[in-house]
Write a structure and sequence with these properties.
Layout: E1 4-7, E2 10-13, E3 16-17, H1 18-25, E4 29-33, H2 34-50, E5 55-60, H3 67-75, E6 79-82, H4 85-93, E7 101-103, H5 110-119, E8 123-126, H6 129-141, E9 146-153, E10 175-176, H7 180-189, E11 193-199, H8 210-228, E12 235-237, H9 256-267, E13 273-276, H10 280-283, E14 287-298, E15 303-307, H11 316-320, E16 326-328, E17 339-344, E18 353-360, E19 368-371, E20 393-397, E21 400-405, H12 410-414
Helix pairs in contact: 2-9, 5-6, 8-9
Length: 424
């Protein structure tokens, strides 16, 4: 469920017409709904509670690092899963307590490890033996032992897009599960780390719980092996990955209740605190990208709606061939005819295509359209390709809205660059 609906003939975010925001800010822009963020977090938390799980929910900032979004979730009790120094600093700036922050990622630098240790975060999810030794040196130099979980790669096919699967043995993530026990024994001998658990994440946008169950089974086996060897395994970080319905007609991901039941059925009797890192599940359907039609162009074999948003604003269709439902902001008349049309942006790339032969109501220059389920990996992955400005982000709360990331000016963009002396 989300809070983007037609009211009196206009698509609204909660009680705010998207056309009102467009009139004040121009287009394109991202719009997020506070009510949807609250609802999704609450439903997820309640599912874990109903399953009897002792769980910490750490929002994956990579999905949407906007500080206002993170603050909203932190106010509900969420922690943060971060993968860079920037995300760690954002989480802290948004008010996430250090004791609810997990640092993941395969390429943490010493500078990043030093910051994590200095801030006293909950744990570092270590992804390789070299990282393990580097973290131990950093922490020992400060006279502390850093809580860690080793991220284990269970060699489970998540059945999702190849670019967002992370749990197969050929992926770059984690420590191969058959070698995990050996690396845990190395960790036990290092002075700057304290083993507290196991981490595992197999991919993103999963629409079936069975791959989760397969991964959880291997985690369970590893818990037994490690405990028999004297390790005090008390946390299980199971990552995120539960999918969302990008295509309302075909995508049917599991309900959080089913996901929580799978966790409880596989691992619930081990006495471990469960750490979960949902990202798109919390924010995907909480956001839309609003754009304006610039031209409708009749080609030799098809029609094109050329909009003012582009692949640099929403990369997922170009990067993953991803689907986003597209809605006119002005509600079409009941029974309005639909015709197939390509929805494209202005960037000089054929890949700058949001939809091919999508059946849509008639569109004309000046019409507003909304790309649905754009709250995750939308603004977070945007760029200034073609020297286009980053688009603003707006957070709605009931009848009001606030700009939570302003659109920069061209002067702002150019001011980041400088000419060397010999070109002055």
């Amino acid at each position: 469920m989300n809070h983007f609906d037609y009211v009196n003939g206009e698509l609204c975010a909660e009680d705010v017409p998207l056309s009102r925001i467009a009139a004040e800010l121009g287009t394109p822009f991202y719009c997020y709904s506070t009510a949807t963020l609250v609802r999704h977090y609450t439903v997820f938390r309640q599912a874990l509670e109903k399953a009897g799980l002792d769980a910490t929910i750490c929002f994956a900032l990579k999905a949407n690092p906007n500080i206002a979004v993170v603050r909203t979730l932190a106010g509900l009790g969420a922690g943060a899963d971060v993968v860079s120094e920037g995300e760690l600093r954002r989480a802290l700036a948004a008010g996430v307590p250090a004791g609810r922050i997990v640092f993941s990622g395969v390429g943490k630098t010493r500078r990043e490890l030093e910051l994590a240790v200095a801030k006293g975060i909950m744990q570092v999810n270590v992804e390789s033996e070299p990282e393990l030794r580097a973290l131990s040196e950093v922490a020992a130099a400060r006279g502390v032992r850093m809580p860690i979980s080793l991220r284990v790669n269970p060699d489970v096919d998540a059945g999702t897009h190849a670019k967002i699967t992370t749990g197969k043995k050929e992926n770059k993530f984690g420590i191969e599960w058959t070698r995990a026990h050996e690396v845990y024994r190395i960790a036990r001998e290092l002075p700057g780390v304290e083993v507290v658990g196991i981490a595992c994440h197999i991919g993103s946008q999963l629409t079936d719980v069975e791959p989760f169950r397969q991964a959880f089974s291997r985690v369970r086996d590893l818990v037994a092996i490690l405990r028999a060897d004297g390790f005090d395994i008390r946390r299980l970080d199971l990552g995120g990955g539960l999918g969302v319905p990008y295509d309302a007609a075909t995508d049917l991901p599991p309900h959080p209740d089913d996901y929580a039941a799978a966790i409880a059925g596989s691992l619930g009797d081990l006495g471990c605190r469960i750490v979960l890192e949902p990202g798109r599940l919390l924010v995907g359907n909480a956001g839309v990208l609003v754009s304006r039609v610039v031209y409708v162009k009749e080609g030799a074999t098809r029609s094109f709606a050329i909009v003012d948003a582009a692949m640099n604003d929403l990369m997922r269709p170009a990067l993953y061939d991803a689907h986003h439902d597209i809605q006119p902001v002005a509600e079409p008349a009941a029974g309005a005819p639909r015709a197939e049309i390509d929805v494209v942006g202005p960037v000089c790339e054929t890949g700058d295509t949001f939809a091919r032969q999508r059946p849509l109501p008639p569109l004309a220059a000046g019409d507003l359209v909304a790309f649905r389920t754009a709250g995750a990996y939308g603004a977070a992955m945007s760029s200034t390709y073609n020297s286009r400005l980053l688009v603003p982000e707006v957070l709605v709360n009931g009848h009001g809205f606030a700009v939570v990331r302003a659109r920069p000016t061209y002067e702002d963009m150019l001011a980041l660059e400088a000419l060397p002396d010999w070109l002055e």
